[in-house]
From TrEMBL:
Catalyzes the first step in the D-alanylation of lipoteichoic acid (LTA), the activation of D-alanine and its transfer onto the D-alanyl carrier protein (Dcp) DltC. In an ATP-dependent two-step reaction, forms a high energy D-alanyl-AMP intermediate, followed by transfer of the D-alanyl residue as a thiol ester to the phosphopantheinyl prosthetic group of the Dcp. D-alanylation of LTA plays an important role in modulating the properties of the cell wall in Gram-positive bacteria, influencing the net charge of the cell wall. The lineage of its organism: Bacteria, Bacillati, Bacillota, Bacilli, Lactobacillales. Belongs to the ATP-dependent AMP-binding enzyme family. DltA subfamily. Its EC number is 6.2.1.54. GO terms for molecular function: ATP binding; D-alanine [D-alanyl carrier protein] ligase activity. This is D-alanine--D-alanyl carrier protein ligase. Its main location: cytoplasm. HAMAP family: DltA. Residues 415-492 form the AMP-binding enzyme C-terminal domain. Residues 11-360 form the AMP-dependent synthetase/ligase domain. One of its GO terms (cellular component) is cytoplasm. ATP binds at T153, S154, N293, T294, Y295, G296, P297, T298, D383, Y394, D395, G396, R397, K492. InterPro entries: AA_adenyl_dom (IPR010071), AMP-bd_C (IPR025110), AMP-bd_C_sf (IPR045851), AMP-binding_CS (IPR020845), AMP-dep_synth/lig_dom (IPR000873), ANL_N_sf (IPR042099), DltA (IPR010072), DltA-like (IPR044507). It comes from Enterococcus moraviensis ATCC BAA-383. PANTHER family: ENZYME, PUTATIVE (JCVI)-RELATED (PTHR45398:SF1), PTHR45398.
Length: 505
């Protein structure tokens, strides 16, 4: 199954079979007909009122209205930017400053924040969706190299970077997922990743393009084990999309297996390393399902390589391999602009049609990471890896980016914001690993003079202040107070030294 344009592929279900379910919540099922009607209305509103060149922000969690806004924006020719409702205000402000959106669709209540954008509340959206309107000029949907969505990721300078994904970037990804992973028409997908994390694109677009449905799993359920394990077997999900970290939580429930959750047919993992133990356990628990490890950065549209996990694969590698690259894309292993000899470790460079045009309004960072290679747009991932008979093997990062529970974090981003906390003079954050996986973020802090009697009170105050500027998953779990930070020979903070201190071999 392949598609030609994202919007037509989704809309055909709304026209052909308006009653087909698209979004299934506990007590409410939304249909493709409703998705088409609402997104058409939102598109008409944007078309009439908003300048086409500017992006729109969609603010909320996993609500149906988020999907209607995404699609409405695309139909009216706007790139959309998903922002999770839990994002700290200062971070949202930084995103708004970079993106300069024309409209903010506030599916969740918009925090009182200064912006020149028009805020459209949920109630106003409902009104927009009620009024059908005729257009004087036809809509011009996002197409070709025009930007379809922008996802903001952690940036080393403390300012988030907006990865621009075009319609054709997305098309290349969706067609690959629809072809290579056994997805068939009308499957039920788990929707667990926040829309601001590009892992969500792995469920949303392949599901919608193939007439499938999304079953959201909200934060409240995920954070409450009892609820999670009561809910999970009854969702009848067929395609599972998550980080390995979320799967590790689910595997804690002994009845999470093919016997009790019969519906599960396909597992797709991405976003962080799939630990061998997790893969092994899954293989045993779901012997009839197909389990895939996929790999890729947001900058190359979700994922570019994948492999089905079999016992043979697990026995053949020390670390679970990250797979074969998709057909339209090339992987090069490079060192200082040169390809390294076959089998050697170097930086993974991705070249192909799903590579982004770069970071929004950030030519400097774009030039550092994006270039053209052998006639294709290429991206330096910062990941180390090697190719062994066409199979890509991951070998960690070559910089200070980490993944914690699948979330991408630049350690320098946290340092920057920690240094802005009033109690902190200087700080460096390092990861503590267990079997290649980050277990904890540890902050080494030189504190300013303070009046706290106990260190834990100082830590509490620092965490509180830090939470105003960084996502909750970026707040270090452990704080170590030092007189000064160690420096390298050329006077930089010796982060590698600190890493070795936290991770003794
Ligand atoms: P993100 O842009 O949030 O998707 O993060 C991309 C980064 O996550 C990659 O550059 C890798 O460092 C890491 N990553 C993604 N998938 C995998 C995987 N299957 N195995 C190991 N690391 C992964």
């Amino acid at each position: 199954m392949t598609i030609l344009t994202i919007i037509d592929a989704i809309d055909r279900w709304g026209m052909k079979e308006p009653d087909r379910p698209v979004y299934i919540e506990n007590n409410r099922t939304y249909t493709y007909g409703e998705l088409k009607r609402d997104s058409d209305a939102i598109a008409a509103y944007l078309h009439k009122n908003i300048e086409q060149s500017r992006p729109v922000v969609v603010y909320g969690e996993l609500e149906f209205e988020m999907l209607a806004c995404f699609l409405g924006a695309s139909k009216a020719g706007h790139a959309y930017i998903p922002i999770e409702a839990h994002t700290p205000q200062e971070r949202v402000e930084m995103i708004l400053e970079v993106a300069d959106p024309a409209v903010i669709f506030a599916v969740k209540e918009w925090p009182k924040m200064k912006t020149t954008a028009t805020i459209v509340s949920l109630e106003e959206m409902a009104e927009i969706c009620k009024t059908s309107s005729t257009l004087e000029t036809p809509l011009k949907p996002v197409i070709g190299s025009q930007t379809y969505y922008i996802i903001f990721t952690s940036g080393t300078t403390g300012v988030p970077k907006g990865v621009q994904i075009s319609h054709d970037n997305l098309l290349s990804f969706v067609n690959w997922e629809l072809t290579d992973f056994g997805v068939t028409e009308g499957m039920r997908f788990l929707s667990q990743a926040p829309y601001s994390f590009d892992l969500s694109v792995m469920d949303v677009y392949p599901a919608l393009a193939s007439g499938g449905s999304l079953t959201p799993m909200r934060k409240e359920v995920i954070n409450d084990f009892k609820q999670l394990f009561t809910v999970l077997p009854n969702l009848e999900i067929e395609v599972w999309v998550s980080t390995p970290s979320f799967m590790d939580i689910c595997l804690m429930e002994p009845t999470f297996d093919g016997e009790h959750v019969e519906s599960l047919k396909i597992f797709l993992f991405c976003g962080e390393e799939l630990p061998k133990a997790t893969a092994q356990k899954l293989l045993e628990r779901f012997p009839k399902a197909h389990i895939f490890n996929t790999y890729g950065p947001t900058e190359a549209t979700v994922a570019v390589s994948g492999v089905e996990i079999t016992q043979e694969i697990l026995d053949g590698y020390d670390r679970v391999p990250i797979g074969q690259v998709k057909k339209d894309t090339n992987i090069y292993i490079m060192n200082d602009e040169q390809e390294v000899p076959a089998g050697e470790v170097g930086e993974i460079v991705i070249a192909g049609p799903s590579v982004s045009k770069g970071y929004l309004h950030n030519p400097e960072k774009t030039a550092e990471a994006f270039f053209e290679y052998k006639g294709q747009p290429a991206y330096r991932t910062g990941d180390a890896g090697k190719l062994k008979e066409g199979m890509l093997v991951y070998d960690g990062r070559i910089d200070f980016q980490v993944k914690l529970h699948g979330y991408r974090i630049e350690l320098e981003d946290i340092d920057h914001h920690l240094a802005g906390v009033s109690y902190v003079k200087q700080a460096a954050v390092v990861p503590k690993y267990q079997q290649h996986k980050v277990q904890q973020l540890v902050a080494f802090v030189v504190a300013n003079p303070h009046e706290f009697e106990k260190e834990f009170k100082l830590t509490k105050a620092i965490k509180e202040e830090l939470s105003a500027t960084v996502m909750d998953y970026m707040i270090p779990q452990k704080f170590i107070y030092v007189e000064q930070l160690p420096l390298t020979a050329n006077g930089k903070i010796d982060r590698k030294g600190l890493m070795n201190e936290v991770n003794p071999t």
